[in-house]
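Hello Y.,

Per our agreement to keep a running log of every chain we model this quarter, I'm adding this entry. I've kept the format consistent with earlier entries: sequence first, then predicted structure.
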Amino acid sequence: MLIPPTAIHEFPEDIFTKEQRKNGAVLLHALCAIYMFYALAIVCDDYFVPSLEKISENLQLSEDVAGATFMAAGSSAPELFTSLIGVFITKGDVGVGTIVGSAVFNILVIIGLSGIFAGQTVVLTWWSLFRDSSYYILSVLALIMVIYDDRVFW
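Predicted structure for the entry above:
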């Protein structure tokens, strides 16, 4: 019986040895991560949000529609790139769990925190919750039906 390699061996090797990481090189990883988060915040604040505002103005979209489409695409970008890394770099099976898990996070946590920090009472109708939940359930069921037999083809 052939034992598959563990998932950690699917990623590229680290530039530092284990001994170098023990002696403090892991701090360089942490500093790099902090720098990348800071750079991401600058890019989002200075370029992403203003460009979405211009696109919404030119397309004459309401704030609700723009938020539901463009900001949803922006919040789903992490799972897109995680899936791309999983498919093209590690050749692993991280895509489905990442996408479904991230969608649940987006639905529950982001919307919940937005409601908590809104600073005012947010009036919602039953229809929007029912509509969004129904489409999400249908999309997850369609995904399950497609990948049920571990074969995906056109």
